[in-house]
Amino acid sequence: MGLKIDLETCIGCGACVSACPFGALSQRPEGKVEVNEACTACGACIETCPVGALSMEVAEKKAEAGSLDAYRGLWVFAEQRGGKVQEVAFELLGEGRVLADKLGVELSAVLLGHQVKDCAATLFEHGADQVYVVDHPALAAYTAEPYSEAMSALIRKHKPEVVLAGATSMGRGFIARVAIQVHAGLTADCTELDVDTDKRLLLQTRPAFGGNIMACIICPDHRPQMATVRPKVFKQPSPVAGRTGRLVEETVDLKEPAVKVIEIVNAMQNEVNVAGAEFIVTGGRGLGAPENFKLLAELAEALGGAAVGASRAAVDAGWISSFHQVGQTGKTVRPKIYIACGVSGQIQHLVGMNSSDTIIAINKDPDAPIFGVADIGIVGDLFQVVPELIKALKT
Amino acid sequence: MAELNYGLSELAQEIRGMVREFAESRVKPVRAELDETGHFPTEILRELGKMDLMGLYIPAEYGGTFEGDSMPNLIAVEELSRICIGVSVSFAANGLGADPILIGASEEQKKKYLPPLASGEKWAAYALTEPNAGSDAGSIRTTAVRKGDKYILNGTKQWITNGGEADIYTVFAVTDKNRGARGVSCFIVEKGMPGFKFGKKENKLGIRASATRELIFEDCEVPAANLIGREGTGFIWAMKTFDVSRPGIAAQAVGLAQGALDEAVLYAKVREQFGKPIIANQGLSWMLADMATKVETARALTYATVQSIDRGSKDYSKFSAMCKVYASDVAMQVTTDAVQVFGGYGYMKEYPVEKMMRDAKILQIYEGTNQIQRDIIGLALNKEYGAVAKK
Amino acid sequence: MHIVVCVKQVPNTTQVRINPETNTLVRDGVESIMNPFDENALEMALQLKEKHAGTKVTVLTMGPPQAAEVLKEAVGRGADAVVLLCDRAFAGSDTWATSYALSTAIGKLERPDLVLFGKQAIDGDTAQVGPGVADWLGIPCIAYARKIEIAGGKAAVERAYEDGYEKLEVALPCALTVLKEANVPRMASLRGKMAAKKLGIAPMTAEASGADPARLGLNASPTRVVKIFSPPPKTGGVKWQGEEPAVMAQRLADTLRERKLI
Questions:
Q1: What is the rounded CA–CA span in Å between residue B88 and residue B259?
Q2: Helix, strand, or coil here: B29?
């Protein structure tokens, strides 16, 4: 089991040693490669071997012939809070529709809650052929235990081949229990999904190792194939007004929830902390006046809840509190997207943000140092570009 | 980074790693704010206590970890100083305050006062200086008059580091006006004793995180049992304390200068002018070379002094003075040069070097000005060579 | 009270870089550390121990022999006992098999009142093992906890969700996955470090854990990694100028969508 090294074939080039993310491979004095306990069988090394000396040895599964064929259909967990279907569910229905069509199966949404049947209509409009609804007082407020039991019961009964859920605090919180209960493979935070129509496999691509590598993952011998996807990874489909489908009401026996919800506090602040934010919109001296941070707040909202950052110049001018400052004396940030508006890019600012995944700079001065670190630079007046950008993001 | 092998014990090396990591992760992010606001680093000292680092100079029998090697504590001071001497002086002042107890107190007094200091549960301060008794410490005017089983203290102490924050104070007061320095005694005074008050916190040029306050004694009642040693021995405890504490100031200076050097070299590598990093200019790289050489010589002299004391040498006043005067002058020079390397940016508060330069000045002043240190060295030379001349 | 904290030794992924020429990972100088989120779980346990006399904190990890290092770190900070679950049989475990293995090891310990996990590990980022272990153990799990108070055999927990937080109550035993904002992890104490240095850690093998061999390792893991590749390298910076603001703004929005950044 695990990584197998064909020592006859190994030429001792060491290519695989540096490719191993976990440092599990090393060269013996004579040059041949050996593997230690740190191996996670991730397979990163296999393709780097120029002579094909590496392979992954997996014991043959004796899955009963045809046992996987009993599973058909693609399901999406229709996350709702307070009777409102969350956007991530629509995004999954959009992608799920594409995958279901490729597989030639129906797309179903699973709606769990109490008195939430009305949500089914919008699920149909967003592409679901069928909606399973479990209406039970134990599901009124989300807790992982009854949600996972209800979902597992439906899976055991109807045997879908694929189940998708949002990688939200709710989705991630209960779906791992479902995977254990139905002995399914579960892949977190996929950024790309596809299907191998021959083998009816879900091809799940996700970042690993802090985003430094991508892994493609399959579940060959288990059904359903389950995956979570982060919000905003897939685009929401446009709803088709009046589109409808089958509503299937299911009854599941559920115990009194072990976890009691005492209070739900919606504390969505206008201010998102820049440290740890995934998206940051930063303003600098180019903003000119404190009230112009409102424009950045609008852009932040259009991005779906970005944090607003500021350069030292803007903070020192008293336009915004130092809580927002990015840079040497402010916070160091590493968001997915960093949009610098009217920030010149002094060295003390750059050290606080230059490891952001994608840096976008909007500045009037084509020679501003910020363009040196930007992936995309727009030379222009931020007061013209930003409102247009907000418009473009909202459509 | 290449380092000289000073033959440090495993414990000392462990402490260097621990305190360096601590200073980087806990002190560095807040040092500018502490400097700006002058807030005392209460949380930082509490955490150092939880990490068993407040008792490095206190023997195990009193709850500390000291086993004859003074280097771990010295290195803790050095590493904290690399990041902020406002914090390191607040840490080190505990040792200074406790030194008279370690040196002169009875077993009973040690058992009572040292364990809470070792655990970091309580903090200490050393109270000698008065408005009219700075370098001339023998001229203090605070009085202590015995009344039954108590002493009654009256007078004012000035610029007391950790004043108001500490729980335990070693206070020097005159018990016999007619005997000059031989009429001075040392008392352990606890915060909350009747008649013991604090003045306002001073607004300082540097080490702004540290608390510097007046101590006011108005018919303050101190149990007679809190007298350290006999009446009239106070000045001995005061001077003996300085002999062992001055290398601590030198360690602050070495750490601070190292911190400024680190900042200057890193900046000189990334700052580009005329199309190349400024470190590529010989004039500037020579400046850095001199800074680095000074830091290492200061470190070598400081370590050698402390190691020599640990090995039992008797006449070390001269060397303690030497490492204090030399290292603190180096710290002043190196921090000033670091600001120069940074140019205009160095003068601005977003970079740490201007703070380091402001902080450095105190090192040439406190625990005996550098003029007093030179006096001590000069006196020692006069005495030593006098003995030789007679032969 | 007995608290079990599950931790993982991970490579410090923030130090990993991609060699743009060979498009491979540059691992040189990448240190192994305790998963940062697990530090918050451990800190939560240690704070509970300070508050509730008689509490014992056991730290459990599954990994290669060198994973003993994170257990020593835990002892340095104040953990009372440690368990290193270590066996070649666990190699290649995905979250399903890992959850099972950890649950069997916990089953060998004094019955815990609380099982704590970090919110996720920075190398795998799945956030699946905590809820998975809870399921094997048959106890409730509250993911994304940011605060806990224990009284009368019950835990009052604040659980974060996208728009705020929920105040929850649960009877012990239960499991939590802990957020970074829950606390600031302490550093190891000097005495703790000295004790950890002297500590010998005998690994618990798969056999000793009583685990069913059919449920361990790569063969028991439903998921398979079929391909590992580097993400498309950062495109060299582009600069757009001289066009209408609306055109450039639209192109930016399209590019961000195309790259699936929004």
A1: 13
A2: helix
Kindly determine whether residue A347 and residue B351, on different chains, have CB atoms separated by under 8 Å.
no
| pLDDT tens per residue across span A141-185 | 999 999 999 999 999 999 999 999 999 889 999 999 999 999 999
- Indicate yes or no: CB of B18 within 8 angstroms of CB of C191: no
Neighbours of chain B (3+ CB pairs under 8 A): A, C
Tokens at B323, concatenated: 């490492």
Distance CA A14, CA A21 (A): 14
In tens, the pLDDT along C12-66 reads 876 666 665 665 666 667 889 999 999 999 999 999 999 999 999 999 999 999 9
Q: Does C259 touch chain A (CB under 8 A)?
A: yes
User: pLDDT tens across A233-242, in order?
Assistant: 788 899 999 9
Q: pLDDT of C123-156, one tens digit each?
A: 888 999 999 999 999 999 999 999 999 999 999 9
Average pLDDT of chain C is 91
Q: Is C199 an 8 Å CB contact of chain A?
A: no
Helical (H) or strand (E) element with C101: helix C95-107
Does B51 sit within 8 Å of C190, measured CB to CB?
Answer: yes
Is there a domain that residue B1 lies in?
A: no
With beta carbons less than 8 A apart as the criterion, state whether B54 and B94 touch.
Answer: yes
CATH for A68-250, among 3.40.640.10, 2.60.40.1240, 2.160.10.10, 3.40.50.620? 3.40.50.620
- Give residue A137's pLDDT band: very low, low, confident or very high (50, 70, 90): very high
| pLDDT per residue as tens digits for the range A29-60 | 888 898 887 777 777 788 788 888 988 876 65
The helix/strand/coil state of B154 is: strand
Assign domain C2-220 one CATH number from 3.40.50.720, 3.30.565.10, 2.60.120.10, 3.40.50.620.
3.40.50.620
Residue B69 contacts C, CB cutoff 8 Å = no
Taking only residues 123 to 162 of chain B, the set having a beta carbon closer than 8 angstroms to any beta carbon of chain A reads none
- Euclidean distance between CA atoms B156 and B153, whole angstroms: 10
Q: Which residues of chain C have a CB within 8 Å of the CB of A208?
A: 123-125, 228
Whether B241 and B216 share a structural domain? no
Do the Cβ atoms of A329 and B270 come within 8 Å?
Answer: no
- Could you give the residue ranges of the DSSP H alpha helices within chain A? 15-19, 87-103, 120-125, 144-158, 169-181, 293-302, 312-316, 347-350, 382-394
Angle at C79 between CA C74 and CA C85, to 5 degrees: 65
Task: Flag if B32 and A329 touch (Cβ within 8 Å).
Answer: yes
Q: Can you give the pTM of this predicted structure?
A: 0.83
Range name among A169-173, B381-385, C232-236 with the lowest pLDDT average: C232-236
Two tokens at C155? Answer: 């835990």
Q: Measured between alpha carbons, how far is C67 from B380 in angstroms, rounded to an integer?
A: 57
Task: Say if residue B373 is in the same domain as residue B271.
Answer: yes
Same domain? For B68 and B36 the reply is yes
| DSSP-based helix, strand, coil % in chain A, nearest 5 | 30, 30, 45
CB < 8 Å to C140, chain A: 143-145, 258-259
Instruction: Tell which of B24, B35, B342, B350 to mutate to test the A interface (max A CBs under 10 Å).
Output: B350
Please, what is the average pLDDT of chain A?
88
Q: Which domain holds residue B311?
A: 236-384
Residues B142 and B109 in one domain: no
Q: Is B165 a catalytic residue?
A: no
Q: Show the tokens assigned to B370.
A: 């550098």
CA distance B221 to B196: 8
Decide if domain A279-394 falls under CATH 3.40.50.1220: yes
| A209: alpha, beta or left? (left if phi > 0; alpha if psi -120 to 50) | left
A interface with B, Cβ–Cβ < 8 A, is 312, 327-329, 347-348
